[in-house]
Amino acid sequence: MTPDRFEDHVWKDSVPEDLLQIYAPYQRETFVGPNPALLLIDLYNLAYQGGPVPPLELQDSYPSSCGIYAHRAIAPTRRLIAAARAATIPIFYCTSDLAPMAAPSDISATRRRMSPRSAGDFEIWHEFAPQEGDVIIRKQRASIFAGTPLISHLNRLGVQSVFVCGESTSGCVRASSVDAYSNGLKVTLVEECTYDRHGLIHKINLFDLHHKYADVMEVDEVIDQMPGLNT
Amino acid sequence: MTDRIWDQYLTERDKAVFSASGFGATADWGKRPALLVIDVNYAFCDEKPVPILESIKTWRTSCGEDAWEAMPVLQRLIGICRGKGVPVIYTTGTRRPDNWDSGSWSWKNSRRSEDAAPKATSHGRDGNDIIAEIAPAPQDLVVLKQKPSGFAGTPLQSYLQLLGCDSVIVTGTTTSGCVRATVLDAFSLNYRVTVVEDGCFDRAQASHAINLCDMHAKYANVYHSDVVAEHLQGLREGMFELPSGAGLTAQAAE
Fold this sequence. Notes:
The complex is a heterodimer.
Chain A: H1 17-22, E1 36-41, H2 67-72, H3 74-86, E2 91-96, E3 135-139, H4 150-157, E4 161-167, H5 172-182, E5 186-195, H6 199-212, E6 215-217, H7 219-225
Parallel strand pairs in A: 1-2, 1-4, 2-3, 4-5, 5-6
Chain B: H1 12-21, E1 33-38, H2 42-45, H3 52-58, H4 65-84, E2 88-93, E3 141-145, H5 156-163, E4 167-173, H6 175-188, E5 192-201, H7 205-218, E6 221-223, H8 225-233
Helix pairs in contact in B: 4-8, 6-7
């Protein structure tokens, strides 16, 4: 996307003019990088529990759900995954490492108070079922890179850029995006496929990431520029 | 297989085990290498070739004359890489003047306290300065580190990623310490690894040979510099977007 549309994103109605002026030097053209991999962050059942309703209504029954925000992202995420498969782009899922005795009891991805877990909570949501050849990374912390072999896999595949999406924008998506950037990878965040529990948190974190570490792009534009699809 | 430098240290059983268990197979070179020059600084080399037992009186970590035997090898490989536009990445140590950050280094050497007093070469250089004979050029990269591996707590992985490297060719010192640690981390990160036999050195000859043996068995192709030079000569020129070096002072030896 051309520099004049740099702020033409979901945060547009929430960011005040003086902040935009302070962040003007970040303005640039956004684009998809070479040799990409797709990173699908924490697309597990817990995020979808309770259905497409505001997360506040799920606070007691399903406190980890992103409700309506998770469900709204399903259709674009399915399109993104389908395009990546068609382009034979390597696909990496991640979810919580639940291996018995793998971590002390106080180790987790956030400081959030947790409700009791049941089997299947951290299975990938059925509409994004991993296929043969995909890779599932089991992690204990927020970033998909922290304490995992991901960077070794990316190196072996010659990956130079990543498409990141999933949840939550402020937590694991942000941590994974910053680590990808720190490892020298070009990062594209797919706007409609990324979500959080509240619109404001989502917008401000996307704003931060877009200006400093990643190119936030719409799913149509990402698919349009996806190497291997249109050449 | 021709004789290798480590053969004299192996028992007949060792040789039989290596050949029967399949270790030491020849791995692929990779297509986009970087040359790594590990810790070839004054603290490890002294200022000129001095017999090691003499040299370590001044520089306790010196590898003595063996360091200087490797110097022409390094010059040759660095020259070829610069000519081809292949990245040359140096590592060397960095430390606070009060030595607080030596951390675990202070646990295994009885002369460590000497480091509390700053030591300089006769031309006033720091022990961590890279030897002038192989000084970095403006387009080269220098990674400062505090631990054995060039990857530990440094941006090295991100540099290799930015350059699009799929492999590393490792030289420098010590074979048993920082070279091996760097080789191991490169291997763990899925980079193809070549170790230049005569481009590495150590203060202990047996350690040098056996560590080359171990690395060749499991993690790397250990080759003589003639083989590595021939391979590098066969690479296409200008494969990499190297740093421009703008704003840096040329200090490379002519």
